[in-house]
Specification:
This protein is mostly helical and 450 residues long. It contains 13 helices and 11 strands. It has 3 domains: 110 residues; 158 residues, no CATH class; 93 residues.
Length: 450
């Protein structure tokens, strides 16, 4: 009976020992899985530390801010009212829900190659976006064309200004010719100062206006005050010196191909002829052209403020690009994370637009033209890649939470394994004791029968 009890006890403890071993193996496997989980959490955290995100910079990266779809596609101080199109692989403009509504008025199926300027909904769209009335908007192009016409008329008037050089004597030997025409006689090197002064006063007759006559008179007086007879050889020397003084006082001189300055002078009556021609041109041609141009500029500027002009230019550029290039709709582009991913993976590109309003002088109408330059985000000057601090902070928070959860599980496993190992050690001790008793009983029983 005692031996049977020992055997039963031995079997029970052996079964329990095997069960503990199985549990320890399972807990060890669970702990190994937690180690792999921790490695995955650490790897994810390290990846987040290296995550880059695009930011918007207007100064080459010296400073930057967050950007979104509106930064490129809506007028603001951030983009300085310049359009930066978000475009897909086909070159179509990517639109959100706001612009989709208007784009459908231009091209319902999203195809490009349609006209924006001649679209009947153009002023309705611009009015909705700028707040200006359709009536005012419809007057802009005619007013602009009127201003261009006035500028053409003004430039034509300017070109008809009488050329004063046609009334002046301008030759390489002007001083010599002037000396002859003015009747300067004798050799100035042999004259007394009063004689030379008398001869030079004859120059005033040829100097045109009264102010020029007075100016040459001042120059003659200065010249005579510092007169050095030894420095004079002929009239050309005298007149060249006077020309320099005359120019320094604001008088007009000509410079010949040798670089010598000569007095500019007029034949008899020619200066008066020039003044009459100038007065007639100014009153009959130039002044009316200037008045017409001023009126055209004033009428054009009255239609809108500079802020409204910027808005019109922005939306004209945007929707003319949509009309030319076509469009596609994506409801997710307003999500900053999604937009960043699409740009980083080069699914979307950025297209800058240079829009010019040229004037066709023959047809007398304005012609708008767009020039495009498309780049992937990494080649676009206003986007820079920086570390994603938001992603870092979120990753750190997730890392700490996961680490705490894993550590807590691992701590519970360690405690459970320690308890099981302690129990298993006790069972092994008891098994050894039972085994010893059983062996002793067997040995004793066999001795009886021996």
């Amino acid at each position: 009976m005692g031996m049977a009890a020992s055997q039963s006890r031995y079997l029970f403890l052996s079964h329990r020992n095997s069960d503990i071993t199985a549990r320890l193996n399972k807990l060890a496997a669970d702990k190994m899985r937690l180690t792999r989980d921790m490695q995955a959490v650490s790897r994810k955290y390290n990846e987040a530390l290296n995550t880059k995100v695009y930011k918007w910079s207007n100064n080459g990266g010296a400073s930057y801010i967050d950007f979104n779809y509106s930064t490129m596609m809506s007028p603001s101080v951030l983009n300085q009212d310049n359009v930066y199109l978000l475009t897909d692989a086909s070159g179509r403009v990517v639109l959100d829900a706001k612009y989709k509504e208007y784009a459908e008025m231009i091209s319902p199926d999203g195809r490009g190659g349609v006209s924006w300027e001649n679209n009947p909904k153009r002023f309705e769209i611009l009015s909705a976006l700028t707040g200006m009335s359709t009536n005012t908007l419809s007057q802009l192009t005619p007013a602009l064309e009127a201003r261009y016409d006035a500028e053409v008329a003004y430039n034509n008037a300017v070109s008809k200004e009488p050329d004063i050089r046609k009334y002046q004597v301008r030759t390489d030997n002007a001083n010599d010719e002037l000396a002859v025409k003015a009747g300067l006689k004798g050799n100035p090197a042999k004259m007394s100062q009063p004689e030379l002064m008398g001869e030079l006063c004859k120059l005033a007759v040829f100097m045109g206006s009264q102010s020029n006559k007075e100016l040459i008179g001042e120059c003659i007086e200065d010249y005579m005050a510092g007169y050095n007879k030894d420095e004079v050889t002929d009239w050309n020397d005298v007149l060249r010196t006077l020309a320099g003084a005359y120019q320094s006082k604001g008088g007009e001189v000509s410079v010949n191909k040798e670089g010598n300055m000569n007095l500019v002078w007029y034949r008899e009556g020619q200066y008066e002829a020039y003044e009459n021609a100038y007065d007639e041109w100014k009153s009959n041609t130039m002044d009316p052209a200037q008045e017409n141009l001023d009126d055209a500029i004033n009428n054009y500027s009255k239609l809108y403020t500079s802020e409204e002009e910027s808005l019109i230019q922005f939306y004209d550029t945007l929707f003319s690009s949509i009309a030319e290039k076509g469009w596609t709709y994506n409801c997710e582009v307003d999500d900053n994370e999604y937009l960043n991913n699409m740009l980083q993976n080069n699914v979307y590109t950025i297209t800058t637009v240079d829009r010019s309003n040229d004037y066709d002088y023959q047809k007398r109408k304005c012609v708008a033209n767009n020039e495009y330059d498309t780049n992937i985000a990494s080649n676009f000057s206003k986007l820079i890649q920086v570390n994603d601090n938001d992603a870092r902070e979120q990753a750190y928070s997730d890392y700490e939470q996961e680490k705490s959860r894993i550590n807590e599980k691992e701590s519970r496993i360690d405690t459970r394994m320690k308890n099981l190992e302690t129990e298993q050690s006790a069972i092994n001790t008891m098994l050894e004791g039972i085994k010893a008793v059983m062996n002793k009983n067997i040995e004793s029983n066999f001795n009886i029968f021996g």
